[in-house]
Amino acid sequence: MSIPKEAYEALQSIVGPEWVSDDPAVRIADTKGGYATGVVDVNAVPPGISIQPETGEEIQQIIKIANRYRLPFIPTSTFFSAMCAPTIDDVIMIDLKRMTQLEINEKDLYAVVGPGISHSMLQAELFKRGLMTFVPTCGAQSSVLANLVHCGDAVIGWRFGLGYRRVLAVEWVLPNGDLLKLGSRSYLKDYFWGEGPGPDLRALMRGNEGHEGGLGTITKIGVKIFPFIPEKLEPKGVSPRTTLKLPENRMKWYNVTMPTREVAVDFMYELGRCEIGLLVSSIPPLFRYVARSRGKGAAGFWENWKKFGENADKNLMDIRVLCFGWTSEKQLAYEEKVLLDVVAEFGGTASAGPATDESNFQSADAVCSWFIGGRFLSEVYFESLDCGLHTEKGVRELARLRTPPLADTWDTPMLWAPYEFGHMGKQESLNYVDDKEIDALRAHEQACREMDLKIGGYAIMEDTRMFGKAWHNYDQWMKKLKATFDPNNLSNPPKPLERLLYEE
Ligand SMILES: Cc1cc2nc3c(=O)[nH]c(=O)nc-3n(C[C@H](O)[C@H](O)[C@H](O)COP(=O)(O)OP(=O)(O)OC[C@H]3O[C@@H](n4cnc5c(N)ncnc54)[C@H](O)[C@@H]3O)c2cc1C
């Protein structure tokens, strides 16, 4: 089957002929995203059509046509994740980059964004107004809306909370084309509040890690924004050594080293109790070596990383803390004093870092993840910092069995990112392979999930077929929800029931 001519013409009449294409070049370009490219999308096929609507009303009409002709569809915003790559024929790829609606409510501290607004676009506008938002570690080029409904993980979550906490009211085109309005958008036609008045189904929209386009298209969200300091962050340098210069009277980095992972976790809990810092995160030695390889390429990285590995102390854990004089310079002095006292109490060392940033305010440095091996995939757990000690140990043991071909991390600590002053913690272990060794990566992923079932690990993007029985048969509930919301099974099937990695 291919896309019927009448369906194609009907779609053209909705958005205009220049915004629909079945050109092979366009279709191929719309086949693969970013995260986990070459790993989860090995069975990807080009979509039948790519379409670029501009408004929510146009999306409703597109979905009605899709239902009439029984054509599957997938929404993508800036498409920096390959998790939604099409795997069946005749998919309508709904590319939402033209939906750049943006309103900023400076008084009530929220912004309303369409899926085409990236973090860098929003952040740039907010900085002009003395306000700020977060930027996820995948980079500021990603869509604010898609990132928040899909993942929304940024180390500034130490103070601001994980992404889903910042989603307010929502406008959502369901898989049958109906419009669902959540929170204050429903009765008050405003986006300032997610809980109400009106229905709040944000947990369904978002779940653990988004539905990957399997439950329709979110067309607008309200997102919480924050006051910032009057000082400006100044871009400096020439590529590949560019950075943002931070105002030293308000922001100061500290690099802390703790003797073991366990002590480091307790140290981070204590910082949370003291409620200091704009962000706190462990830094895997691997990340430091990647950062130092700017301009040197993969060969430069591997030369230095191997030298380091031969003598690495596998227990030491590095933590970065950004002290922040949010209200005044006096607050910065207070935060530094508290930090240094806590470091001493836990037997660590601390040194001040350069007042620059490449990752947290306006970044795109995550793309360097690919140069280590060509392909990468993370094991990610959102639970507690303590839980991360168990999951990292298990993942490391499994990785050791497959190293090589998994790139050697020398058994050094991976990433712990505490959120909400340590009330929640992400633990992420990054795996890298050459692009010819994807099977090893997939086998490792499967082994990690089997381990999770044994130890009670709570990994993201789990497959309902694998975890349903162990988790109160929630797969049955998901099936019912999918059938209710998507009776024709067209919204990126079989999402969110099945993920691309798990094989029965
Ligand atoms: C190197 C690297 C590092 C990363 N690190 C992080 C990180 O630190 N934090 C983090 O949060 N993520 C991270 N990611 C994962 C991911 O890339 C991001 O979450 C990113 O925001 C997703 O890309 P996007 O915004 O372009 O969304 P897309 O790729 O366009 O979409 C993401 C998912 O949401 C669905 N979707 C998109 N738009 C809509 C919509 N309007 N309605 C309904 N569903 C929709 C898509 O079908 C897809 O499944 C990383 C990825 C890479 C490659």
Describe the structure.
There is one protein chain. The protein has helices at 5-15, 24-29, 56-69, 119-128, 144-150, 157-160, 184-187, 202-206, 261-274, 285-292, 297-311, 329-345, 385-401, 438-455, 464-467, 474-485, and strands at 20-21, 49-51, 73-76, 92-95, 102-105, 110-113, 131-132, 167-173, 179-182, 217-224, 226-227, 234-238, 241-245, 251-258, 279-282, 317-324, 349-352, 356-357, 375-383, 415-419, 424-433. The chain has four domains: 5-97, Uridine Diphospho-n-acetylenolpyruvylglucosamine Reductase, domain 2 (2-Layer Sandwich), CATH 3.30.43; 102-227, Uridine Diphospho-n-acetylenolpyruvylglucosamine Reductase, domain 3; 236-455, Vanillyl-alcohol Oxidase, Chain A, domain 3; 464-504, no CATH class. α1 (5-15) runs antiparallel to α3. The longest helix is centred in the C-terminal third of the chain and has 18 residues, at 438-455. The chain has a five-stranded antiparallel β-sheet with strand order 5-6-10-8-9. It has 504 residues and is α+β, with helices and mostly antiparallel strands. The chain is 33% helix and 21% strand. The protein contains 16 helices and 21 strands. β12 and β13 (241-245) form a beta hairpin. The mean pLDDT is 94. It binds flavin-adenine dinucleotide. Flavin-adenine dinucleotide is lined by residues 33-35, 74-81, 83-84, 96, 115, 136-138, 142-143, 145-147, 149-153, 210, 212-213, 217-218, 366, 369.
